[in-house]
Known about the structure:
The chain is α/β, with parallel strands linked by helices. The chain folds into two domains: 2-167 and 222-247, Rossmann fold; 170-220 and 252-281 and 298-309, UDP-galactose 4-epimerase, domain 1 (Alpha-Beta Complex). It has helices spanning 11-23, 54-61, 77-96, 136-155, 172-176, 189-193, 195-204, 225-235, 256-267, 286-292, 300-309, and strands at residues 2-6, 28-33, 44-48, 66-69, 103-109, 159-164, 166-168, 207-211, 219-220, 222-224, 244-247, 254-255, 271-275. The strands form four sheets. A seven-stranded parallel β-sheet has the order 3-2-1-4-5-6-11, sandwiched between helices. Strand 4 (66-69), helix 3 (77-96) and strand 5 form a beta-alpha-beta unit. Helix 2 (54-61) crosses helix 3 and helix 3 (77-96) packs parallel to helix 4. It is globular.
Amino acid sequence: MQILVTGAAGKVGQALLAKLPTAFPTATIRALLHHRDLAPQPGLTTLKGSLSDRATAEAAVAGCSHVVHLATCKEVPDDVMDVTVKGLFWLLEAWRNNPLARRFVLIGGDAAVGHFLYPHDGPVTETTPHRAYPGCYALSKVLEEVMLSQFGQQYDLDWTCLRAPWIMEKDDFRASLSFGPDRFGGLDWAALAGPDRSAEAIRTGAIPLLQDHDGQPLKRNFVHVSDLVSAICAALTAPAARQRLYNIAMDEPVDYAEVARILAQTRGLPSIPVRSGYHSTWLSNARARSELGWRPAYDTHRLVTESWAFARAPDDPRRVWYPG
């Protein structure tokens, strides 16, 4: 078993590389890297290049029995079609001609179904229609899922797609709720709340209590990186995962009112209601629980409390590698 991991130097890639030797002790691993490097690891070889180059994709796939495709591009219109869309095409072209090919695992995203940008009649399942929101990233997520399933149809490829929401680790969730300059991703709370309320939030340490378009506490989906990694390991070899799409998320979405209650009780932090035009969503993980036997270890309480307890080391600065 030789596993190719693309985007291996990213958040999910590094966590996966740390887990694979335990999950598959006899496997060898090839990491495809673009800008970043990795520390040496037993059983790991690396290859550098861009997936926009067909020769790189072919070299990456050669000799591999399994692929975990993590490499992507966010809101970068100049690159997204070459890297995300054409890159996947070159990988799949090489994969279908690879005599050792067994399973191709794509890590998708809930951007393909619009996550909280659009209203949903009920839980978002694997049969919910694609609904890309404005921008190139969501469009690329739709195109990835469609391309993968159609290659499976055309060439009888064994594929699995794991559709993940926002992936959390360390103190990511705490930083996502900051009104200050250390805010990491997500919504611009200062712009939504206005300068006076934002200044008050910074002074008191308040967190935003996000509300939907009707003024009700919003519910949004997340997954911890360790839970996504455990799902990847399950999907690599599970017979039921052949040509299947799975939502990989927490059992319930994060309710911002519950977040406010937890932090008031455990940290004494106040909250400030912040109205938005977004919609609560529930990314149902029922299929993954049933067919893969997968269970997420993180719920809202654990996500919140561990994020606030995490102390980031001086040599571990937060870096944003791509916009969006």
